[in-house]
Amino acid sequence: MAKKTTETSVIKRTYPEKIDQRLQQIRFRIEEEKADGLFVNYLPNIRYLTNFSGSAASLFILKDEVWFFTDDRYEEQIQTELYELPNLKTFITRDVWDYCVKKKLLKDISSIVFESERLSYQDVINIRNIIRPVKFKPALGIVEPFTMPKSTEELENIRKACEMSEKVFEQVLKNFKVGMTEKELAAEVVYIARKLGSEGEPFPTIVVSGKRSSLVHGSPSEKQIKSNEVVTIDFGCIVNGFCCDVTRVFAVGKSTKEQRAIYELLIKAKDSAIERVRPFVNGKLVDEAARSLIAKAGYGEYFQHSLGHGVGISPHEQPLITFRKDDQIIPEGCILAIEPGVYIPNKYGLRVEDNIYVNRDGAKYLTKAPTELIVI
Question: Domain residue spans in the chain?
């Protein structure tokens, strides 16, 4: 039920300059689509543009205004959280489209575009029925290209999350005991991250060991971790809403010659790929730099997933660093996770994953995996 509409008067007086640039770029795309505005419903994109951290919101980006909608649970929160964007208006309601119609907010609007990858077909049909004769048109990739480059403030949040993850892994190694289950070790990772200040987990923490370490995205189980096994931990931390995504491995008791060789291969593959990273390079070429080394060593069939992806408010963002796509251009200012792996079924798997910042000169490491396989 609609309660009221209020024009914002927020305490936060400054915000990253990058936000104005994003809005300008999005408005240019709206003009290209010959529309009067853009409807944004994907929460990470809303946070990139407004700083809103809640679980319910919608955003309209118009030629001269920004309309922010949320419900009464967040009425107080937005007074101090939203960026003070030029001509920002906030609306408190539980039914955005019904509110727009009843208040005649769309009376001067003839067409609105939406993020076609973020709305279901049924939602689109329902909205069109409500707002007729206003046209509701799909637009692909109308926001994400402009959120890939991070502001200085966003980069700092991710850098802190990366530093936190390094400390988490150090402490996990100290606390590890043979006989712990994968679930217990995963809980330890989460607990330590929270104690160090992480706001949560960007994704469910992965801990797999022994033969189960060949599961690329295996969930932690009740399996006990034994001596002479390798353990893979894939986890992240969150600082002010921004994530990191790292993977670390270690061996228990001792490691084999093959395990050490594969680990060294993955480090070389990762570093070779990162050396290829430059602004405006095609991600497929970066993927190839790592994949070719792994294939040459005889493990190509055991590395089937993409090499990497963007990182930000979501742990997996564009661009994708993969051999499967030809159009993934790496922009200056983005954060990437680079994660080559080798997974031998019913034997074991190893993966290393570091986060990097793409600057004008290439790439800067935000995390640094150990150069040799750790044995504890």
Answer: 4-147, 152-375
- Give the homologous superfamily in CATH for domain 4-147: Creatinase/prolidase N-terminal domain (3.40.350.10)
> CATH says 152-375 is which class?
alpha beta
The predicted model scores a pTM of 0.94
| Residue 14 banded pLDDT, cuts 50, 70, 90 | confident
User: If 0-12 CB within 10 Å is exposed, 13-18 middle and 19+ buried, where does residue 161 land?
Assistant: buried
- Sorted by sequence, the CB contacts under 8 Å of residue 123 that are 6+ apart come out as none
Helices (H) and strands (E) counted in the chain, each on its own, are 10, 20
- Tell me: pLDDT of 5 over 70: no
* pLDDT tens column, 244-260: 999 999 999 999 999 99
Q: Are 232 and 213 in contact (CB under 8 A)?
A: yes
Q: What is the pLDDT of residue 287?
A: 98
CA distance 246 to 233: 8
Strand ranges (E), the chain: 4-7, 37-40, 58-62, 66-70, 88-92, 111-115, 135-139, 206-209, 230-235, 238-239, 242-243, 246-251, 308-310, 317-321, 335-338, 341-344, 348-351, 354-359, 362-365, 374-375
Look at the block and give the residue holding tokens 């008067």.
9
292-349 tens-digit pLDDT: 999 999 999 999 999 999 999 999 999 999 999 999 999 999 999 999 999 999 999 9
Place of tokens 């353990």: 231
